[in-house]
Specification:
By secondary structure, the chain is an alpha/beta fold. The chain has five helices and six strands, in the order E-H-E-E-H-H-E-H-E-E-H. Strands 1-2-3 form a three-stranded mixed β-sheet. The protein is globular and about 50 Å long. The protein starts with 37 loop residues before the first strand and ends in an 8-residue tail after the last helix.
Length: 167
């Protein structure tokens, strides 16, 4: 398993840092993924899983009438399947994958402002026990998503010296 390398100072956009010289803090804008991957609430779980796989993501947002109304993770889908799924798909699994995604979505969406620091995002993820935060930008609404993996990569970039890249 390869370990992602920390971001270098050059890879963190200046626009993503607060003023303050060497103690500048990285904002969510530097780490978030965009554009958002969305799906209709009446899509079936197999469609949500296929969408995630096609885009290489672990979360999709539910868009209903132009508004984001919920979020579903690959883990939410996996919890609906039998533990032995890797060996043989059961009839239960086939039926579960035909359920509409709105039945398993989370609707109390924890989100974060695009200008918040990654420390703020990490604290909110821990406080709300979620694995991703949709990112908002004022009147534009949701503009991206930041995940626990994104935050770990960003936090490592902040604490590890650039000489660690050579190791």
């Amino acid at each position: 398993m390869s370990v992602p390398r920390p971001l270098t100072e050059d890879e963190i956009p200046v626009s993503a840092m607060h003023e303050g010289g060497p103690s500048a803090r990285v904002t969510v804008a530097a780490l978030m993924s965009a554009p958002l991957i969305t799906i209709a609430p009446d899509a079936e779980l197999w469609q949500a899983r296929a969408t995630m796989q096609a885009h290489g993501v672990h979360h999709v947002l539910l868009r209903d009438r132009g508004k984001i109304v919920g979020i579903v993770s690959d883990r939410d889908i996996a919890h609906r399947l039998s533990p032995a799924r890797a060996a043989v798909a059961s009839r239960h699994d086939e039926e579960a994958m035909r359920r509409p995604v709105f039945q398993i979505a989370s609707y109390d969406i924890a989100s974060i402002d695009i200008h918040a620091t990654i420390e703020d995002a990490a604290a909110l993820i821990l406080e709300r026990s979620v694995s991703a935060l949709p990112v908002t930008d004022g009147a534009r609404g949701y503009v991206g998503i930041v995940t626990t993996r994104d935050l770990l990569r960003g936090l490592l970039a902040c604490v590890l010296p650039t000489s660690a890249d050579a190791a």
